[in-house]
Specification:
α5 links the parallel β3 and β4 (109-113). It is elongated, with a radius of gyration of 18 Å. With 175 residues, it is an alpha/beta fold. α7 crosses α8. The termini are close together. A five-stranded parallel sheet has the order 2-3-4-1-5, with helices on one face. The longest helix has 12 residues, at 38-49. It has eight helices and five strands, in the order αβαβααβαβαβαα.
């Protein structure tokens, strides 16, 4: 068990679930509240895959994706992280569906977006059986406890794994 990854960021409990789902599903959807770490988690996962990242907060990318989703996806290649997919919506999700229906390889797309996006029935149904959805919440109590504990440790040394597990168990975050 590691408490921090090589970038110095605290490892999220959702990271393990998300990484495992990339090995089994063609699409991973990371959704949750604003500022919960969706983009950070997606980029960390994507780095391991050598994925391209595109944010639909960018007006030019959003316009191209909305105009012709299939060409947009083909031009960027796979694996691909599409951040803030709700900014384009159903047309891009349907383009993702077409791509993954032609290729059963797991881990092709990592999508991020708001929770409200998935409440639209046509969107959630179009990727049924192709997507694993990971809900990312702000830090859990165990993650917060670990943050506090790590910040109290000397910066030059690595945390003792046994001590990390002890902190997590005390706060209900480790089994």
């Amino acid at each position: 068990m590691t408490s921090e990854d090589k970038s110095g960021l605290l490892s999220r409990r959702a990271m393990t679930i998300a990484a495992e789902s990339l090995g089994a599903f063609r699409v991973l959807m990371v959704h949750g509240a604003r500022q919960s770490g969706k983009t950070t988690l997606a980029r960390q996962l994507g780095q391991e895959l050598g994925a391209t990242h595109v944010s639909l907060d960018n007006e030019d990318d959003r316009a191209v994706a909305a105009a012709d989703g299939r060409t947009f996806l083909e031009a960027l290649g796979k694996p691909l992280i599409i951040d803030e997919i709700q900014r384009v919506g159903e047309s891009l999700v349907l383009a993702v569906k077409v791509v993954v229906d032609n290729d059963n390889t797991p881990g092709q797309f990592i999508l991020t977006g708001s929770t409200n996006f998935l409440t639209v029935p046509t969107i959630s149904e179009s990727l049924a059986g192709r997507v694993h959805i990971v809900t990312l919440w702000p830090f859990s109590q165990g993650e917060l406890a670990l943050c506090r504990w790590l910040s109290s440790r000397p910066r030059h040394g690595r945390a003792d794994a046994t001590a990390v597990v002890r902190v997590l168990r005390r706060h209900g975050a480790a089994s």
